[in-house]
Design goal:
about 30% helix, alpha+beta
């Protein structure tokens, strides 16, 4: 019943009576309150209160009830028939645009900042005009909202309205997370946020920014739009590291904007394969005439338009085109179909919690590594006080390094001397990949009723946390003594490691059924048969299990560090903050956690999309460390473009995947040693167990709410596990019989029971 009362209270609050806009302003001024004071009390932007007083927007819950309460109290102090004293009305007014500075001039508001053009701006680029977004009802999940009506323009040469009449209002809120949407940073250079979604409505071009701000775009061509974004729009994001670079403005072009600027709404089949429009396209010629350049990838779904940097000043704009499939539906769901305001909110929140998108989630994940560890920094001043660019310790530097031959993927120039169609053996190539292992159920397991899948949260991020990786080039060593603190690749025979007897703690050995366990040393879970190349975490785990190791040779990296720590922490914080917005908080008791996770994606589909994008940023960023050739006429033995990046580091990727797989196996062994239960399938970060009940709590050994030390623990933090799905044992056996595949991996289908084409678990 209390929930019904709360719902009724919220409904009443949503319709709290408010006086007319002019009266709201009179009451505030009558009490000597500034817009900033009211905004701070209500926890909204100054421009939001200004919009309420101007009648361009209306407050929404929960601010509406508090605002109505304040106005009611003020109306009792200052009735409508009592004039306000003249001294109470003496609030400074903004000078007209073009008026010279004087001692009485006030600091420019967002309105003037967005409207005044710097002297260096070309004549073709008009000042940006800010406009307020009228409030609209919150959209139901999955629905779209109409474009807001365009308010009256503010002429650049006309006298300006009073300073308190702000340019923007917060976008309508459909959930608490919406009201917390970023509204620009403290840096005045980027006061309008990191990005804008550019749309064309009835002949007008509008730029939807974060926080509900909408700017009137005067640009008549794409080159002019780029100039406007750099000179007038005040878009961008401050650097994430002291020695790094500020993020470039991001322009997201809707289909209407594409038509307005002469670009195709969709790519042809040939253009889609090429990933770009032809170089002879008229818009690309326009950019060239205006001295703008494109990267070698050309103008595609994610474009980069730039001029060579002049000193420390960059002139670069990123362009995202959703209708060209810039937002992969696997990670961004239906984000490309959102209204401009909704899309600006979603991408803006991603930018504030991760970084301004620079391309796909994979590209952004890789760019985030560089943004947090820039390759160079400014040196200390020399005798003349001059500073120079020098290597930034802890970074990967400016220049790429060669990988070890065993770390090179097929087709790499280091392998050009191998015979054609040569299949490298484990003793020739480093094969650190995620798990894909399954086995038939035992007779005892067939007596259980359910198969329950548990999934490790942000498994690859957890694998990167605290991991020491190489920063420089490898050093080849013969007959090395293994050092668990030294990152590298090791040729060693681990076939002697017997999982039937392993050390689970110091001086504590456990007897296990090795036939029911995957090997920790191979992705397929089979026991190795001889020497093979392994990353440091894999060899260290063999030592941890109680076995000696004697490497034959190694490629070690003595210049090393915890390069991925800051990257992990930022993505972890982004993930946890977004899950908290969805009602799933850290440190929930197990039963409450499972309840909170049940159906969390339906509470706010856009926030759920953000979760998917953050997780894809982790996996994609790690995968991008060993990017393969992408067409462009490449032939085996030739270098490809990604090899020129300092961040092309297959050794780092191998180390992260190795540690992630070992983390999973360690938990499996702890669980087996304590409970006698073994997984029937493992796929990447998901493990499936036979159980007498449908919940993870039916087989995870919790005692007084505490999990098995070192085993699986329910929770939302990276490295902890959540419920992936439950099916019946009969379902599992039926799938095996239907597809006649004893090794069929049930973990791939445990989520919803639908058997589809196999994938790699990524």
């Amino acid at each position: 019943m209390s929930e019904l009362f709360d719902a009724v209270d919220a409904l009443v609050a949503s319709r709290s009576a408010l006086p007319p806009p002019a009266e709201r302003k009179r009451l505030r001024q009558g009490h000597g309150l500034t817009l900033d004071e009211v905004a701070a009390a209500l926890r909204v932007r100054r421009a939001t209160v200004s919009g309420w007083e101007a009648g361009r927007t209306e407050p929404r819950p929960p601010e509406r009830d508090a605002y109505a309460r304040m106005l009611k109290q003020l109306s009792e102090l200052y009735p409508a028939d009592v004039p306000v004293p003249a001294e109470d009305m003496a609030i400074p007014q903004e000078p007209a645009v073009g008026a010279g500075p004087g001692p009485s001039a006030v600091e420019p508001t967002e309105d003037t900042v967005a409207s005044q053009a710097p002297a260096a701006a070309p004549p073709a680029v008009e000042p940006a005009r800010a406009r307020a977004v009228p409030a609209a009802p919150a959209a139901e999940p999955g629905s779209t909202t109409p474009h807001p009506p365009a308010p009256a323009r503010v002429s650049a040469g006309a006298p300006r309205p009073p300073a308190e009449v702000g340019p923007a209002s917060r976008r309508p809120a459909a959930s608490p997370a919406r009201t917390a949407a970023p509204a620009g940073g403290a840096d005045p250079r980027f006061e309008n946020g990191p990005l804008a979604v550019v749309d064309a409505v009835e002949g007008q071009v509008l730029a939807y920014c974060v926080g509900g701000l909408v700017l009137d775009v005067p640009a008549k061509s794409l080159p002019a739009l780029v100039e406007w974004a750099l000179r007038e729009a005040r878009l961008g994001q401050p650097k994430l590291s002291g020695s790094g670079q500020d993020a470039d403005p991001l322009l997201v072009l809707t289909e209407a904007a594409l038509e307005r600027y002469g670009l195709p709404v969709a790519l042809t089949g040939e253009e889609r394969l090429a990933g770009r429009i032809p170089e002879g396209h008229k818009v690309i010629k326009q950019l060239a005439r205006a001295n703008w350049q494109l990267t070698k990838r050309g103008f595609g779904p994610w474009g980069r338009v730039y001029r060579p940097a002049q000193g420390s000043e960059r002139s670069c704009v990123q362009v995202c085109i959703p209708s060209w499939d810039a937002l992969d539906t696997r990670h961004w769901a239906d984000a490309a179909q959102l209204t401009p305001a909704d899309l600006a909110w979603l991408l803006g929140l991603y930018a504030s919690r991760v970084m301004t998108p620079r391309g796909s989630t994979a590209v952004t994940g890789l760019e985030l590594m560089t943004a947090l560890h820039p390759p160079t920094r400014a040196s200390r001043p020399d005798a003349a006080g001059k500073r120079y660019s020098e290597h930034n310790p802890g970074s990967l530097g400016r220049d790429p390094v060669d990988c070890a031959p065993c770390e090179a993927p097929d087709g790499h120039p280091l392998l050009a001397g191998l015979p054609r169609f040569h299949q490298r053996t484990p003793a020739e190539v480093l094969m650190e990949e995620a798990y894909d292992w399954a086995r038939p159920l035992t007779d005892t397991e067939c007596l259980h009723s359910h198969l329950v899948g548990i999934d490790v949260n942000m498994a690859f991020a957890a694998g990167a946390n605290g991991l020491t990786v190489g920063l420089g080039a490898p050093e080849h060593v013969r007959q090395p003594v293994f050092d668990a603190k030294l990152p590298g690749s090791w040729l060693v025979d681990l076939s002697h490691v017997d999982l039937s007897r392993v050390q689970v703690a110091k001086d504590t050995w456990a007897q296990l059924d090795a036939s029911l366990l995957p090997s920790p040393f191979t992705p397929g879970g089979e026991r190795p048969t001889g020497p093979a190349w392994y990353a440091t975490p894999t060899v260290a785990y063999a030592v941890e299990l109680g076995y000696d190791v004697h490497p034959v040779e190694a490629y070690v990296r003595r210049d090393n560090g915890r390069y991925l720590d800051a990257w992990y922490q930022r993505l972890r914080d982004a993930y946890l903050a977004t899950m908290a917005d969805l009602g799933v908080h850290a440190d929930l008791p197990p039963q409450e956690f499972l309840a909170a996770m049940d159906g969390y994606r339906h509470r706010d589909p856009q926030l759920a999309t953000l979760v998917s994008a953050i997780k894809a940023t982790v996996k994609g960023g790690i995968g991008k460390l060993r990017e393969r050739p992408r067409g462009e006429g490449w032939k085996p033995g030739q270098p490809w473009r990604a090899l020129a990046r300092p961040t092309w580091r297959p050794d780092i990727r191998a180390a992260v995947i190795s540690r992630t797989r070992i983390n999973m196996h360690r938990k499996i062994v702890k669980h087996a040693a304590f409970t006698g239960q073994y997984p029937v399938a493992v796929l990447s970060d998901c493990a499936v167990y036979a159980s007498d009940g449908p919940s993870p709590l039916d087989f995870l050994p919790y005692r007084d709410g505490k999990p098995l030390p070192g085993g699986f623990k329910l929770g939302i933090n990276p490295g902890l596990v959540k419920h992936e799905g439950t099916q019946s044992v009969l379902w599992g056996e039926g799938v095996r019989e239907q597809f006649d595949a004893p090794g069929l991996n049930l973990a791939r289908y445990i989520k919803d029971g639908t058997v589809t084409n196999t994938d790699n678990g990524e």
